[in-house]
Amino acid sequence: MDEFMKIAGLHYLHDTLKPILDEIFTERKPCEIDPLKLKDIEQLDGNIANLKRYVQKIFNAIVNSALVCPNVMCQVFCGLKQAAVRHFPDSKEVRYLVVSGFIFLRFFAPALMGPKQFELTTEAPDAQTARTLVLISKTIQSIGNVVGARKSQHPYKERYMMEIHREFMDSSNIEAVRNYLDVISSASRQHAKGIETPIVLKEGFMIKRARGMKKFGLKNFKKRFFCLTNESFTYAKKKGSSALCTIPIESIQAVERLEEDSFKMKNMFQVLQEQRPLYIQAYNCVEANEWIDMLAKVSQTNKNRLRMYHPGAYMDKACRWLCCKDSSKDAAGCTPVTGGLPADIKVSLDSDREMERIHSLFIRNMEKLERVKDACESQAVYMGDRNMRTAVQIDDLKTCFDTVTDLMAYVISLEEDHKKNRRALYRGTKYGSEQAPIGDDNYLLMKAHLSTDSDLEL
Fold it and tell me: What is the average pLDDT score of the chain?
């Protein structure tokens, strides 16, 4: 799981933490708050202020990043939460604890304590900066832990951390973390059945252009109440009314600004979908930016995203697009969509080394994969007999069985190829030669590995 999050979430980690870490490494402000480690106790107040500022920036960056969490990570977190709810239906806290234990304790915290290992910095931190990162990591871990506790009071082993605890363990921060965990473990992205009501991300009144679906209908502009959740984008006549239109999040192909010349109106943007674009006007530029940013983030992992779009509207009277003058209403876009991965993020991964680590993990856990495969077979045969159920309950038996079977086949095939390569290398290397001088530890280690291969013939 740690390796999966590191690979799948590396860009997400950089996008979320790197700007603040760069600031910490540049400023190198003291943040030591342990009185026993301070040479001058008068520095304590200033150090506490420095630490609070850094923790607040890291905290805000994390809780505001839910919509850009990689889709594959969200799917895994959703599965974890659903499994926790099935096994502990009476405990609401466990659904938060099972997700926070991975995202905070095993993802953000290790990255904060060892940023160089996650390519977040190219330099090793000095002693003062390393201590700052440890204190920040402790606080972030504690915030992640407290959301899964029945009581908000969290005893610290170190008394000097109590002031930081009181600063960040208030109800508003805990609620912000819970909302973050709800979004990243949402079932909507994988079209699974949710276990709770949709999470409202943003709502408010805006002006939309009427669709004019009737033959003699006018495409005028109407005030509507819009609501964006983690599942859909809807609008109604007023708050609390039935939705007049519902656009599933997975159906949004792009969210872009609309040229002012289209309707001679400012602060307009368009939500592109398969049927037709939805033209919307916000009341001011700030609201427009917030809606565009929120809609773009929540839909950026959709598989059907467009590459090109029309920045201008299609003018029915002129029978052409205002931007490119194309007369076909179904013409492909003329301008590249915005968004995507930032081009300035550089990540250097040793693909061979990472693949070897993942392969080694699978080899060491082949028995566990075999048990999952057996569980699929058992449940498929004894689905209706409760007495025959195994300890592992699997919802989609066929998909799980096929995935595990293919995975085991690939791992075994790769291991066989690896053994053949080792045998060929061993047979082609003469002990005492320039490639394998007498006493060479690598050659002796390779010989020891080969002697354990049951299919080796010497």
Answer: 80
pTM: 0.60
289, with CB counted inside 10 A (0-12, 13-18, 19+), is middle
- Regarding predicted confidence, which is higher, 83 or 3? 83
Distance in angstroms (rounded) separating the CA atoms of residues 109 and 113: 6
pLDDT at 172 over 70: yes
User: Residue 9's CB: how many other CB atoms inside 10 A?
Assistant: 21
Q: Which single residue is written with the structure tokens 């983030």?
A: 297
pLDDT (tens digit, 9 = 90+) per residue, 392-418? 566 677 888 888 899 889 888 888 888
Specify the pLDDT at position 52. Answer: 92
The Cα angle at residue 75 between residues 70 and 76, in degrees rounded to 5 = 100
Residue 451 Cα distances to 78, 414, 432, 445, angstroms: 45, 19, 19, 10
* Tokens linked to 10: 């590396």
Cβ–Cβ < 8 Å for 56, 164: no
Structural contact between residues 425 and 446, judged by C-beta atoms closer than 8 angstroms: yes
Rounded to 5°, angle at Cα 44 from 39 and 50: 120
45: tokens are 């107040």
Q: How many C-alpha atoms does 249 have within 13 Å on its Cβ side?
A: 27
Distance, CA of 443 to CA of 430 (rounded, Å): 10
